[in-house]
Amino acid sequence: MTALQLTGLTKTHPGGNLATIRGLDLTVASGTITALLGPSGAGKTTVMKLVAGLFAPDAGDIALGGRSILTLPPERRGVVMVFQNPLLFPHLTVAQNVGFGLRMRGLPAARIATQVDAMLGRVRLGGLGQRRPDELSGGQAQRAALARALVLEPDLLLLDEPLSSLDPALRDEMRSLILTLQRDMAVTTVVVTHDQTEAVVLADQIALLLDGQLAQHAPPDTIYRRPASLAVARFFGGVNFLPGTAAAGVLQSAIGPLTLPDSLPATLANGPGTLTIRPEAVVLGPGPTDANPRTARVEGCAFLGSQSRVDLMVGTTPLQALVAPEVARTLTPGQTTLIALPPEALWIIPLGTEAG
Ligand SMILES: Nc1ncnc2c1ncn2[C@@H]1O[C@H](COP(=O)(O)OP(=O)(O)OP(=O)(O)O)[C@@H](O)[C@H]1O
């Protein structure tokens, strides 16, 4: 078992007034990938450096496999970090770079050569071991950096923005390579990223860090459709928010009574809260009869590439829908249209969690 467990982790940087990381509790299950996601400055790199042993926390604990690693030096923690910039040694060959950590561990040369060869094959760099880093493409260099980390068979792999510097085609290739290797080696992994898409495509769980605190920790689909707060919903592109009061499966709101899903937890289905629905879940057209039909005025449409945004007004309440461009092309600003808000797509953010 090499689960990672952070407990009450707190860190104030020298000269900072407010703690950068405040009482962070986070568990990453053994063999899974968690994306530590958050906007620039949220404290993601600080958490990663605390775990790797490059910073010391003011308070809290870091345990790997059930044992505290807090007092261990970085090289004895069983943690390896792969940075966004591959940071290969320019004067060493690719094979020497990949074998560097094994040499530091004092392994015999023949065993290093065998392990390095096998790992280069796994990251599809077989045959390129004798090249220098400046003879590799950006994607190849990043695969070499991944090989250098994984050849050490770490208990915990920390990846810093592993896809963001790659072009879209390479991104897909790197993504599937990371997922394949991570599953094959069952290495507990934390991916640090500010990019929602990177988090969604790579991670089993997303830990969203806002202002040094854990805003929500859940599978990607849950965090998208069931945000714990307005700040979480906004971070994931949520724009439709309707305050109201819920009782008996119905929310009374500015656009009238809205039928809520049966699956809504009882704590959310009773009392005041803010209803949210993702823009891609708003249906243009009549929809099924029980799907909260409304008449809306089309305010405008914007072509976004694979989707179009439609700005709507129901009475005096603005709503946004994301639809296929061919649907948006049939709409004219000023016209009225039927829309539907399917109950299963509705979610309620309770009052008191609405900061941000
Ligand atoms: N060594 C340091 N000394 C002082 N302050 C620091 C240090 N490292 C980070 N900080 C501050 O801590 C805060 C969080 O920084 P951090 O790099 O952890 O955020 P981040 O979420 O990783 O951001 P980014 O995505 O931009 O890398 C920032 O305000 C930053 O200026």
Automatic annotation (TrEMBL):
Any single GO CC term annotated in Swiss-Prot or TrEMBL for this entry: ATP-binding cassette (ABC) transporter complex
Domain annotation ABC transporter: ranges: 4-236
Keyword Transferase: no
Gene3D superfamilies membership: P-loop containing nucleotide triphosphate hydrolases
Molecular function in Gene Ontology: ATP binding; ATP hydrolysis activity; transmembrane transporter activity
Keywords: ATP-binding, Nucleotide-binding, Transport
GO biological process, one term: quaternary ammonium group transport
SUPFAM superfamilies, per database record: MOP-like, P-loop containing nucleoside triphosphate hydrolases
Entry protein name: ABC transporter ATP-binding protein
Organism this protein belongs to: Tabrizicola piscis
